[in-house]
Amino acid sequence: MKKISFLAVVALLLFSCSDDFVTDNEISGTNQQYDVNGQNLTQSSRIKTEDDYYWLKKKFAMALHKAMVQNVNLRRFLKEEAIKQFDGDYDILYNYIRDEKIGDKTFREILLPFFEKESELSQIESTLGALTIFVPTLPENSFSAQTWNVTEEVPLVAIRLLNNRKTPIINSEGQSFLLDENAIPGFPVIVIKESERVVVESFPNYDRNKNREFTAANGFKFKFESPYYNHLTGTGGGAGVDPDKITLAEAWNVNGKHQNLGWQRDYIYYTINPTNPDGPFINNFAETIRDFRIEGSTPYNALHNISDPSSVNNNLSDPDLEDVLIQSGTPSQGSFWTDGKFDFKIYINYNADSPDLVKVFDATPESLFDITYSEKNIGLLWIDLKIYTITDIKQKSLPLDLEVLTWRLHDYSNEWRFRVEEVDLQVKNTSTTSSSTKHNTNFEFEASGELFNVVKIGGKYGASSEETHSSSKTKEWTESSDDLGMTVVHFGDNVIIDEFELVMNLPFIQIKDTIYRLRRYKTNECSFSLVPRKVQ
Prior knowledge:
- With about 525 residues, this protein is α+β, with helices and mostly antiparallel strands.
- It contains eleven helices and 33 strands.
- Strands 4-7-12-8-9-10-18 form a seven-stranded mixed sheet. A four-stranded antiparallel sheet has the order 23-17-33-32. Strands 20-19-24-29 form a four-stranded antiparallel sheet.
């Protein structure tokens, strides 16, 4: 038992140091939007109205702050709603809960006196259907939904902008200010933003979304962008895959390791190896994104790539805001603290005749980066505030185990295109482009009783040639999102690309284990490993 426990610890340490390695036991960008053919996709007028939406958000932020100053029960209500994490983050969808009772009044009724007239609030509700109140988790436990002392702390209200690196901070009792892009609050603050995890009726993609519809008593309707985000019914989150159900090492070994005598996936999906050239399809495996990592020329650039606004207008004209600037040379981080968890979307083009398969997942900044902060104090006319700046940052890999699809080579292309984006707003657009994919043709159908089995004839391409399938295809992309690039995975790519032996000499015992290096796929700004895993 001691040997097994120690090997498990060694495997964990190696995984922590490098995502490219697995043990025997374990395996048992730019901001422009492009489609997979390189076509530049033009954003709609939604972004052009961002400045107009700022003034609506500012009115709401001012009213919300005034209400919080006067009403401790409202502060308690916001804390409790945020902790529910209805979408997997500390978000509160205003229109969905605006008629909830807080004492003898609804949330909306508490806000209403702080607008000049009711039509102002009604305009905000109808224009900003996905309006969300977010409670951020700030550095060094300085503030979060969990630590919010509602009796004593009245947070300021920040406004997340999709076209500006700076962040307006609204205070109804003093000077509001514009926080520089390289500063993170160390004081209580909540954020007004538009949700990137739900779609509402005003979004052009609402009817195309086939997920469950939720309806509030006031008639407001929304859908989660993906079931992954649905925590209202307890079904959200990703389904992990048990890594101990398959030994990829067999596929590596039977193909002569570095000799590359055959395709490793031929062995996994069709039991084909150099001594067994034909084999039936095995429907027990699925391709799985094992881990994910943000890339960049430096760690600072890597964070910047997923946190920088998609279009930048640093000339926000609001005379009520005082600029708060940090000394030059402090790295910019794109105000990622206003976003909560990063939301990623992967489009997989696996067949010319089929719509792209879309997979989503999220990640906290801390799960993608090790960040070191430095504390500073800034003085305004009315108060001293604590802020944080980043002094060091290191990239790290996110263990993911995100199931993609069984690679049915007899049905699907022999190369899949993976396109990745970090999502900031769930407004989707589409364009029609031509799509072509390559397919193997070395398959036969064999009768087995009343059933027919698919049999692959020969390893790799067999004695046949590839076929190219072409069709017109609708491509989808999300507005205000960061395009992290595209990469291609071929069925014949090795899953394992190298191995070495780990030897640990301890008193009275020598521990040996084989470490395998996985192939890694890189786009412009991210990377991942793709591994067939046994799923049934």
